[in-house]
Amino acid sequence: MPPRKPSKRPKRTGPKSLPDPSDHPDSETRFVQPFEAVKTYLCPGCRQEIPPGMGHLVAVPPDAPDLRRHWHRGCWTNRNSRR
Ligand SMILES: [Zn+2]
Predict the structure, then answer these.
(1) How far is the CA of 60 from the centre of ligand 1 (A)?
(2) Most buried residue, 54, 61, 70, 77, by CB count within 10 Å?
(3) Residue 35 lies in a domain
(4) Interval 34-78: pLDDT, tens
């Protein structure tokens, strides 16, 4: 194998740190109706799955709509009271 050229990569800033809507107090929340919940989501609050068919909340940071997160209702409500 030929020696690899030391490639100078532009220094990456790395993946954005894990998005946490609780860092975005302005996150817009929307209720996802049970019939809209067709996928399993991972709730960042309790790290448990939100099964399909369960109504829950989705939090959308206004400056990063791609980083929306799905939360159990209770976890979203209590997100500030637990660390
Ligand atoms: Zn949860």
Answers:
(1) 16
(2) 70
(3) yes
(4) 999 999 999 999 999 999 999 999 999 988 888 899 999 999 999
> Does 8 reside within a domain?
no
Q: Is residue 9 part of a domain?
A: no
User: How far is ligand 1, taken at its centre, from the CA of residue 74, in Å?
Assistant: 7
Q: Choose the most confident range, by mean pLDDT, from 1-5, 16-20, 77-81.
A: 77-81
Tokens of 11: 């220094």
The predicted pLDDT at position 6 comes to 72
Nearest alpha-carbon partner for 52 in 42, 61, 44 = 42
**Residue 1 falls inside a structural domain:** no
Dihedral sign computed on CA atoms, order 29, 56, 43, 15: negative
Residue 77 Cα to ligand 1 midpoint, Å, equals: 10
Q: What is the pLDDT of residue 22?
A: 56
Rounded to the nearest angstrom, the distance between the alpha carbon of 57 and the centre of ligand 1 is: 10
